Amino acid sequence: MSILGRQAILQAIEQGAISITPFSHELVGPASVDLTLASTFRVFRKVHQVIEVREHTDYRELTEKIEVPEGRHILIMPGETVLGITRERLRLGPGLCGWLEGRSRFARLGLMVHISASFMGPGIDSQQLLEMSNFGPAPLAVYPDTPICQFIFQRMDGDEHYAGRFAGQTQSSF
């Protein structure tokens, strides 16, 4: 198992083993691809009951979907979590999996871009949900279209395929 470098990523895209839509060569780094933030977010409603952490619990029942107009931002207060989604749809072919990670430039401001469940299984074909939390001391203005996170590709043994609850997730279904 190995991490794909820039040339291997570009070759896998050319061969169709990786699909990123829309795709920009400028977002391919030495060992990852940056993904940009879409303009759709989910913010948590004020809840006055206990939220059960169980298989059937659905984040959509606890959040409100909002759209940030072009040129505007969403404000994330210290200690607050909001859900975002990548503009790009990512598809991984058999034998590839990967990790969705934040970018250090934003982590240094206190923004945790993907705080849990960073592993993405083989065969995913979706826009990536981001659990974004402000662990810093000041409010953060977060703008859509910012290259907010990075995807690290990894070759795996076997050709299994992810078919879980959020397979095929898109901005409209999130």
Could you describe the 3D structure shown?
This protein is mostly beta strands and 174 residues long. The protein is built from 2 helices and 11 strands, in the order αββββββαβββββ.
Q: Quick one: biggest sheet?
A: 9 strands, antiparallel
Number of strands: 11
- Poorly predicted tracts of residues: none
Order of helices and strands: HEEEEEEHEEEEE
Radius of gyration, in Å, reads 16 Å
Task: Detail the topology: elements first, then pairings.
Elements lengths: L5 H10 L2 E4 L11 E12 L18 E5 L6 E3 L4 E12 L3 E7 L1 H4 L3 E2 L6 E2 L4 E10 L5 E3 L4 E9 L19
Antiparallel strand pairs: 1-5, 2-3, 2-5, 2-11, 4-10, 5-9, 6-8, 6-11, 7-9
Key terms for this structure?
8% helix, 9-stranded antiparallel beta sheet, two-stranded antiparallel ribbon, 40% strand, mainly beta
